[in-house]
Amino acid sequence: MTARAALQQRLEQGIAALGLALPADAVERLLDYQALLERWNAAYNLTAIRDPAEMVTRHLLDSLAILPFVQGQTLADLGTGPGLPGIPLAIAAPGRQILLVDSNGKKVRFLREAIRALKLDGVRALQSRVEDVEGQYDCVTARAFASLADMLAWGGHLLAPGGVWLAMKGKTPEEELAGVPPGFAVRGVHALAVPGLEAERSVVVLGRSAD
Asked: DSSP label at 144?
């Protein structure tokens, strides 16, 4: 079995375990993204995870685990780093307008190359601090980016009325839930079972309290 075939098997088994139905070309494109990330990572140090199989689990499957909670036509992924979870979500559920935001120039250069190479329609990358981003989005995602209070203080203005904010966390951040600022409310906290990952993962779903 080739290295790519082994990664494909791991990815396909993980997608099945998550109960997701993805477009026909999604697995190939997700693996193309992983290969591009691996190649750039050697020079640019975009992620601490170097092992390709671990990338499939900790980056691709971890990102896809929140897909059932994603809604709306527009999505902003804050502190996206090398495109997580934004790029896997764009591949798995095409058709949304997605903005990938990171303040790190190297990471944004990679994002622009990934968007070009993978032909990700409707996806764009912006080098910016979160608090300087404009617009409103139906869905906002943030992965291990900051505390809930800081996330919403910096980026809360980006959440459209009726929109949903998906904060990806390790174990449920009980101490952070009390710190959600006025104007926002916790809609739910869901444990995520990421196939192949021993660590606890959860997603905190937030919305505007005035909806």
From this structure: S
Q: Which fold has domain 3-208?
A: Rossmann fold (3.40.50)
In three-state secondary structure terms, 168 is strand
DSSP for 29-94 reads: HHHHHHHHHHHHHHHH---S---HHHHIIIIIIHHHTTGGG--SSEEEEET-TTTTTHHHHHHHST
Q: What is the DSSP letter of 157?
A: G
Tokens 């998906």 appear where?
Answer: 166
Sign of the alpha-carbon torsion through 153, 159, 161, 167:
negative
* Kind and range of the H or E run holding 9: helix 3-18
Q: What is the mean pLDDT of the chain?
A: 96
Three-class SS state of 160: strand
Read off the pTM. 0.97
Contact 47, 81 (CB under 8 A): yes
Give the domain ranges of the chain. 3-208
205 burial class (0-12, 13-18, 19+ CB within 10 angstroms)?
A: middle
CB 82 within 8 A of CB 107: yes
CA separation for the pair 45, 24 (Å, rounded): 31
pLDDT tens for residues 170-187? 999 999 999 999 999 999
62: left (phi over 0), alpha (psi -120 to 50) or beta: alpha
Strands 159-169 and 137-143, sheet pairing: parallel
